[in-house]
């Protein structure tokens, strides 16, 4: 046993793993004789020596929709419909930010997590302990009492069927027994001295591998789901997920740009006030953000991208002003802030892009909120933006999901090598 995974005793006489274009193609230690990938470089089919298979189905943006396990004479189909999970056509659980609801018994279950986001204890609504997990440093489960659910290390889903023992991080799969990914890190050129398959620079005790740069989402008006992924994905048609997949950035922060939502009306209708609140919060968050874009050695290896909606655009201008000043005060390059993208900016004529920061505006002509002079938000262009994209479809208006098809117009990160270091191209 190694990291709670069985190991082939004949490993000295065979090649256990082979790779194709950087992707794991075979793992004979687990009896895997072939792994096939789709056009998104995600595993499509895993075939075992005994003809058992695991088949994956994805949406166009790479979101996992279904996993089919054919093991021996048994077939199990798990379907993922947003945050609802079905098994063989029956709704089993509803995932929440803090746990899940078992739909067969309609009971709430909550995770108690450690500093790395690992699910250590599962409790019911009365506080009764239902599961306890203990981990090796790289994520292998070395002890688990009452193994009732699959979300373990870093809160990621662990597939143990047929001895696979892979964690699903979305863009890549992770083998905790080896402390290695199944394919190359897309940011590998930013740290040449580290294996492109290594998990968090082989320092899992002090670091978490987020697999990407930092994306900050700043929401607009809301009814209680601000400062959360729900605003962007549940109510926004998977917008945040689409953005992160397009940018290959999976480290996200969520900020309330409406400074409280409907409960703060009409107070938050003032664009300058939102900008001031954003600036104040930016000064508080800047040191935290800087830590998020460093690796385990303290090196700055990530960049920041800011995505806003509606009221969040004005808030973001102040927030970025504070981040910019923090970078200047610490002799850091402004290129660490890669860009700001404003979707349906509310009151655009009262805003000005932060100098030195690329800003992009996305607006729908038929937006009856951001282009409404009666709401003191006439149609207009934010002063100083680098590029404006205007949608003319009649049914596309103000909600964030109305901009889903514009996600692919966001610029992807591009880098160049300077003195042996990878830096963003301005």
From TrEMBL:
Superkingdom assignment: Bacteria
InterPro entries in alphabetical order: Rhs_assc_core (IPR022385), T6SS_VgrG/RHS (IPR050708)
Gene3D superfamilies per UniProt: RHS repeat-associated core (2.180.10.10)
Coiled-coil ranges (or none): none
PANTHER family: PROTEIN RHSA-RELATED, PTHR32305
UniProt-recorded name of the protein: RHS repeat-associated core domain-containing protein
Organism encoding this protein: Bacteroides intestinalis
């Amino acid at each position: 046993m190694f990291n709670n995974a069985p190991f082939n005793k004949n490993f000295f006489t065979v090649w256990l793993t082979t790779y194709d274009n950087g992707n794991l193609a075979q793992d004979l230690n687990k009896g895997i004789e072939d792994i096939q990938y789709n056009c998104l470089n995600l595993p499509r089919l895993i075939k075992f020596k005994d003809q058992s298979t695991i088949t994956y189905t994805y949406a166009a943006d790479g979101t996992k929709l279904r996993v089919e396990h054919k093991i021996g004479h048994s077939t199990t189909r798990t379907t993922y419909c947003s945050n609802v999970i079905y098994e063989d056509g029956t709704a089993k659980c509803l995932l929440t930010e803090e746990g899940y609801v078992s739909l067969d018994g309609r009971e709430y279950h909550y995770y108690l997590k450690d500093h790395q986001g690992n699910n250590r204890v599962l409790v019911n609504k009365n506080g009764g302990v239902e599961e306890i997990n203990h981990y090796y440093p790289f994520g292998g489960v070395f002890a688990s009492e009452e193994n009732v659910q699959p979300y373990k290390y870093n809160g990621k889903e662990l597939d143990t069927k047929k001895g696979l023992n892979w964690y699903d991080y979305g863009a890549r799969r992770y083998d905790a027994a080896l402390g290695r990914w199944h394919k190359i890190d897309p940011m590998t050129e930013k740290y040449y001295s580290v294996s492109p398959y290594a998990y968090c620079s082989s320092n899992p005790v002090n670091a978490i591998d987020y697999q990407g740069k930092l994306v900050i989402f700043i929401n607009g008006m809301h009814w209680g789901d601000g400062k959360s992924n729900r605003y962007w994905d549940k109510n926004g048609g998977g917008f945040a997920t689409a953005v992160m997949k397009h940018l290959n950035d999976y480290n996200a922060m969520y900020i309330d740009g409406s400074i409280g939502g409907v409960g703060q009306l009409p107070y938050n209708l003032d664009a300058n006030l939102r900008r001031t609140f954003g600036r104040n919060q930016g000064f508080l968050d800047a040191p935290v953000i800087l830590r998020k874009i460093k690796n385990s050695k303290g090196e700055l290896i990530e960049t920041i991208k800011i995505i806003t909606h509606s009221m969040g655009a004005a808030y973001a201008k102040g927030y970025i002003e504070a981040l910019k000043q923090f970078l200047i005060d610490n002799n850091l390059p402004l290129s660490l802030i890669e860009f700001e993208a404003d979707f349906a900016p509310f009151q655009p004529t009262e805003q000005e892009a932060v100098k030195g920061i690329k800003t992009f505006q996305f607006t729908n002509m038929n937006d009856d909120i951001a282009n409404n002079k009666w709401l003191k938000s006439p149609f207009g262009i934010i002063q100083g933006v680098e590029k404006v994209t205007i949608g003319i479809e009649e049914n596309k208006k103000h909600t964030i999901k109305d901009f889903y098809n514009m996600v692919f117009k966001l610029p992807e990160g591009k880098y160049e090598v300077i003195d042996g270091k990878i830096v963003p191209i301005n």
